[in-house]
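Sample entry copied in:
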Amino acid sequence: MNPKFIALVEQNLRFNDEYVDYKFVYSSKHNFFKFVTMEEDNKNFFLNKVIPLKKKVSIPSKINDTDLTENSFIERVLDHCTYAVMKNIKDRDKKKKLKFTKFGKCKLRYVNIKNYNNLTLEEFTKNTTKIVKDDDIKDRKTSEGININEQNQKKQEIQISENEIIDKYNLINLSFFWENLSYPVIANLQMKDKESGLIKLDLYKTREKCVGTVAINKNKRGSWSFICPDSRKRKPQFRKNLSASGTLKIKSNNFIEGRGYDNNKNKIEFVANKNIYE
């Protein structure tokens, strides 16, 4: 599952009498308005063998996002964040349900690596030209008889490079483990601010790059995700639609620890034994 778009959204929520800015990651491969129930294997291999019952969890159904435009994706994300009811959310470590009250406005931070400067649903509705996809701009301009040079100039104005987004903190190397991947992964993390950053992976053997985002909440926990290009150079299960996501937490001295799975259920773990905010 290689999503066409990944969005980072922030919302101010009241949790345990304290207001917290929570971060959420949306994938364009998920229909987050429709959930399906699936069985989750017991993490303990022995218990999984002797106890036939499996835990049931709800996850978003998968969709084909090939023809999905960035404009439509953003509208769906902001609609869901604004109007969907938050329930049955649990702390992964403590297994307790989290109850939120007094929801603030949903603010779109990024789509892939493009900065949307906390775009709200109200702003989106009033002026959708702020988020028109590059290809849509090209088609519209061509139909109006605007030449190629002007099209390229407009693209440069709305495009935000990685250097413009990530420039506040140093690049931190990650110790990275990816189950069933038979060669090293050179991974690093660079924070934009205290709550968001960019994660990059270099697949050593095939010389390919994967890119994604991290989102950290004020409770020093958060989420991460990345996507990789398709490639025939990799093992069959890693060739197409390769992506991964998971959770993370900030340890003492601002060290970071992340865990999760790729779309083939291979375990991924990484740590940074260095202050990520230096």
Summary: The longest helix spans residues 70-83. The chain has two domains: 6-29+65-112+114-136, 165-272.
